[in-house]
Write a structure and sequence with these properties.
The protein has 22 helices and five strands. Helix 3 crosses helix 8 and helix 17 packs parallel to helix 19. Strands 1-2-3-5-4 form a five-stranded mixed sheet, sandwiched between helices. It is mainly alpha-helical. It has two domains: 221 residues, Metalloproteases ("zincins"), catalytic domain (Zincin-like, 2-Layer Sandwich); 192 residues, Alpha Horseshoe (Serine Threonine Protein Phosphatase 5, Tetratricopeptide repeat). The protein is 64% helix and 5% strand.
Length: 444
């Protein structure tokens, strides 16, 4: 896990989404994302959405919010995850956002076709996500893809009718999935009273998801009438506590973590949180002792090996870190973030030739990881392939919404790569997006 702003990383990657002055970032961690995927699967399946394809991503914001901007991603603020007390409450948030997708609310967003095509081309409109995360329609203009301010406001804001529809659908999905819909009522109650606050004091969720006491009463009635077989709450609670425990261990003060390490009720999560706290306080022996104990108890858990690799890497113990990441890849060969971390460890240890295929495999599975793009650029440059190095830099800037910078590197890439090759075509895509952004800015 790496954070470019703090001495100890939040996770495998923090990706800037908007302009530096207003940076919103994603927390990318394979363990956390796996846990959220496990929690989301039953409600996504109940909603008829492709759970294998969809990603639940964490926004590095302490406020309470959740939102969608396309059919493939659900964004949750870290602050929301840390504030919730049960797995059912988090599953309710996911079910609600899934309902906006399943009910076709996104299809009615007034986004022009060219913008939508650009969003699809880059995997996810991160700069628009920044706007949704902050509740500020102007933040999304950093992407510069020709979406008007009015369209941006419509892009992620929901009407009261849509909210009522999503509430009812969320309860149905939870009931079908065997998740207690009372979690949805508790989630709604968390936001009750927001309408009485001035706009600048409301959580972003209240600004993008209009609230009302009528909605709360309707939710209570729907949850009370819901029938369905209850699922395995113990398993769901474990994954909720694991995600919450790891997030809090990296974001809260180590002393706070050590005092509350056992709050989850699971010994392995307690030990994981202690390992992270020891690592962050400069006690590597204690950290490694804790993580090795965890690995002994669960030798087939790839996320423990990944955490060990991070601890070793940040202590500059490169050969040992590479070995830990290699074991993690062996246990989870399809996990893009673990592949990317392994490639990163190989690169910083001085082996770009070995790093390159791992980083390419990572990028093929997840194009949202800016660190993988950065590392790929570095690996290509060190191996003498300056055309691909420029392409990786262009795509990284495009992912971050920095299309002016992306265009400069894309133009360089098109001059270095073979005309008509896959890399040249990708550079052309970035160049077209950058030119469209420039024309859009000139018209304003």
């Amino acid at each position: 896990m790496q954070n470019f702003l703090k001495p100890f990383a939040l996770f495998a990657l923090v990706v800037a989404l908007a302009q530096p002055a207003n940076a919103v970032s994603l927390i990318r961690d394979p363990d956390v994302e796996h846990a959220l995927k496990r929690l989301a699967k039953p409600v996504l399946d109940a909603a008829g959405l492709p759970s294998a394809r969809m990603r639940i991503l964490v926004v590095n914001e302490s406020t309470l919010n959740a939102f969608v901007i396309d059919r493939n991603h659900i964004f949750l603020h870290e602050g929301l995850i840390l504030r919730l007390k049960t797995a059912e409450e988090l599953q309710a948030a996911i079910a609600h956002e899934a309902a906006h997708i399943a009910n076709g609310h996104l299809a009615r967003r007034p986004v022009n076709a060219r913008a939508a095509q650009t969003i699809a081309g880059f995997g996810v409109a991160l700069a628009v996500a920044a706007a949704a995360a902050s509740g500020n329609s102007e933040a999304g203009t950093a992407l510069g893809i020709g979406v008007s301010s009015a369209a941006q406001r419509g892009f992620y804001g929901h009407t009261r009718a849509e909210e009522a529809s999503a509430d009812q659908s969320a309860v149905r999905y939870m009931s079908r999935a065997g998740v207690d819909p009372a979690g949805a009522v508790r989630l709604m109650a968390l936001f009750s009273g927001q309408e009485l606050l001035s706009a600048n004091r409301q959580d972003p969720y209240a600004r993008s998801h209009p609230l009302s006491r009528d909605r709360l009463r309707a939710m209570q009635a729907a949850a009370g009438a819901a029938r369905g077989k209850k699922g395995d709450n113990a398993t769901a609670n474990y994954w909720f506590q694991r995600a919450k425990g790891k997030l809090s261990a990296f974001s809260r003060a180590p002393k706070w973590t050590l005092r509350r390490a056992g709050d989850s009720g699971h010994k392995d999560i307690e030990l994981m949180r202690k390992a992270i706290a020891f690592h962050r306080t400069g006690k590597p022996k204690k950290a490694l002792s804790a993580i090795n104990s965890l690995i002994s108890a669960a030798p087939k858990d790839p996320y423990l090996q990944e955490l060990k690799g991070q601890i070793l890497l940040e202590r500059r113990q490169y050969p040992a870190a590479v070995s830990a990441y290699k074991r993690a890849v062996g246990l989870a060969p399809r996990d893009a973030l673990i592949l990317g971390a392994y490639g990163h460890a190989l690169l910083v240890s001085g082996n770009p030739k070995a790093a390159l295929p791992q980083l390419e495999r990572s990028l093929a599975r997840d194009r949202r990881d800016a660190r993988t793009l950065r590392d790929l650029g570095g690996a290509y440059a060190r191996l003498g392939n300056n055309g691909m190095a420029s392409l990786m830099t262009a795509e990284r800037y495009a992912l971050q919404g920095r299309l002016k910078d992306a265009g400069i590197h894309a133009k360089r890439a098109t001059g270095l790569l073979k005309r008509g090759s896959p890399g040249w075509q990708r550079a052309q895509d970035v160049l077209v997006a950058a030119q469209t952004a420039d024309k859009s800015r000139r018209k304003k």
